[in-house]
User: Which sequence fits this backbone?
């Protein structure tokens, strides 16, 4: 069972000063952007982050956001790990065309 970063004692890499939402890197899905695959699709220059809301000592994941490292633009937002992995694959496939 994979633990969320905050369950492993990690600190957020950014806290939004306007709403207090915490951002943590999703290392597994970020690695998915660069993994080798049999199709030879190019890497996706992106990072996946959890957006989480803190209420006292409780932290609740709200979803994952895929961010383009070059433009800092949002490419996708999903709550499901499978949906995000699929979106990453689709974007990598599109880059290969």
Assistant:
């Amino acid at each position: 069972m994979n633990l969320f970063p905050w369950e492993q004692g990690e600190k957020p890499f950014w806290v939004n000063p306007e709403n207090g939402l915490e951002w943590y890197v999703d290392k597994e899905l970020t690695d998915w952007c660069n993994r080798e695959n049999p199709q030879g699709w190019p890497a996706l220059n992106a990072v996946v982050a959890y957006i989480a809301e803190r209420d006292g000592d409780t932290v609740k994941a709200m979803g994952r956001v895929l961010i383009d490292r070059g433009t800092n633009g949002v490419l996708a937002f999903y709550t499901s790990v499978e949906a995000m992995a699929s979106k990453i694959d689709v974007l990598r496939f599109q880059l290969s065309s």
